[in-house]
Amino acid sequence: MTTSASQYHRHTSYHREKMTPHHLDWQNQPNVFKEYPGLVPIALPSNLPLPEEKLSSILRIKGARDTVEKMDSETLSLILRLASTLTAKARHAGGGHFFRSAASAGALYPTEIYVASHSVTGLDDGLYHFAVHRHCLYPIRTGDLSGYIMRTTQTPENKVPTLTFFLTAIFFRSAWKYRDRSYRYHLLDTGHVMENLVMGLKVLRLSHCLSYDFDDEKANHLLGLDKTKEVCLAMTHVFRGNAVSDSGDQEIDSLPDAISSASRVSAREIDYPIVREFHQPDASKTLRATPVPETPHGPGVAPEIWKKTAPPTTWPEVMNYSEALYHRRSKRNFVKETMSRDSHAALVSSIFMEMSPLSVASAEYNRSLSMGFLADDVEGMEPGFYLLDFTKKSIGLVTPGLFVEKMAHVCLDQMWLKNAAVHFLFLADPDRLDHIWGARGYRYAMLRAGQMGQRLYVNATAMGVGCCGIGAFYDKEAGKLLGLGKASSLLYLVAMGPVKSTPSSQG
């Protein structure tokens, strides 16, 4: 049984001499759109105007509206449009492929969105699945579910949410390509979608909080999932006022098999037991009562000198936030050009801005993860390996030198990466995650890495900078290159830099 972060991370690490061949079964490719045969979809309001604010302005928003007079289906439709939407279609010999606003490893899109409504004008109370390809809702349950939801997760001051968004992952979608390692991508991809959702709530000034802590069994039961194939990974609550739950111990019935069978996305699915084994332990919804010490400035390594970061002189945006969502792509056609001082400063500044002020757990999630970057070609910056300090909003040089081309070799010899100006790094110590949070700590770190990765994606797009996330690398070689020793591991890498005018894109 694989039940700890350190066990799972070691087991799924790539080794240059031990890579086993894997041929994709294209005849059994998973469906990237979940279907509910027999259910009648509810169309969401369309053609709603999108926000025209720039990302730099959204990131600076403090708090939310004190009160929201009402929540309606138009607002819900806009939230979902900002969280996840189809943005373009690429045609090829085997058919077509839809791009989406949130990045996904291999364009496999394991993440699904469900929403529970309470007192929403124009929509009955109940639970719905969001069909991104049709921008509609499938009704899963009817009635007020707030009592059950309150028992499933935590909300600030026991407030009753008017909306609760549930983000799940369908195992086989990513496992079809990435096998045992796929749980890493389930978490990263769900973090990408979560960041879009939270950003959309922020631009609409809606009071909200996100949670990675909840009772897994209750959440999966509520959503009617086949938990061997699909599981809930994260939630976000939206509040309309200060109502407090008084609904008591609400219970709900199991849903029909026709609902749970919708978690199957291929006729011949292969089960990867290690993914289920690692996900199952530690289903507690409660954070540790004792405070967690602040994350050290990079497990096993630390700079001698920290310098306070300076904000960009001007945030060099060429499009607004909504436009950036629709133009976001994973771009690989980097060119050897210098990244401007302001572009790099804007990227770092965006990472330091807290997005969920109502989330009592945000500080915990931040402490699960360390971040740094490899700067090869940034205006006014000495090349080297740098770390970020979230608390003091500072950066520190750990090791000077040129690292980007070496890291391209570590990333399965994807040599187009050597032309990027910067590689942002997401780091964590799996043993420390186990010690403080149990197996659930891995969820914190990887989901948070996905969130920050998506923020970099959208920010880069808004500035006309290329961006591509990388989750595949030789794990031990990455640690050795960075001098991390055994105390820390690379979880995710996001390459950024100037690109050719004709993009080369994937999901």
Ends distance:
33 Å
On the 0-100 scale, what is the average pLDDT?
90
CATH architecture label name of the largest domain: 3-Layer(aba) Sandwich
Detail the poorly predicted runs.
Answer: none
Tell me the fraction of residues in β-strands, as a range.
15-25%
Number-wise, the strands total 20
Broad structural category: alpha+beta
Radius of gyration: 22 Å
Biggest sheet architecture = 7 strands, antiparallel
Categorize the overall geometry.
globular
CATH top level assignment of the largest domain: Alpha Beta
The strands making up the biggest β-sheet line up spatially as 1-8-7-5-9-11-10
CATH topology of the largest domain, by name, is: NADH Oxidase
Tell me the count of domains: 2
Helix content: 25-40%
- The DSSP helix count reads 16
Output the CATH homologous superfamily of the largest domain: NADH Oxidase
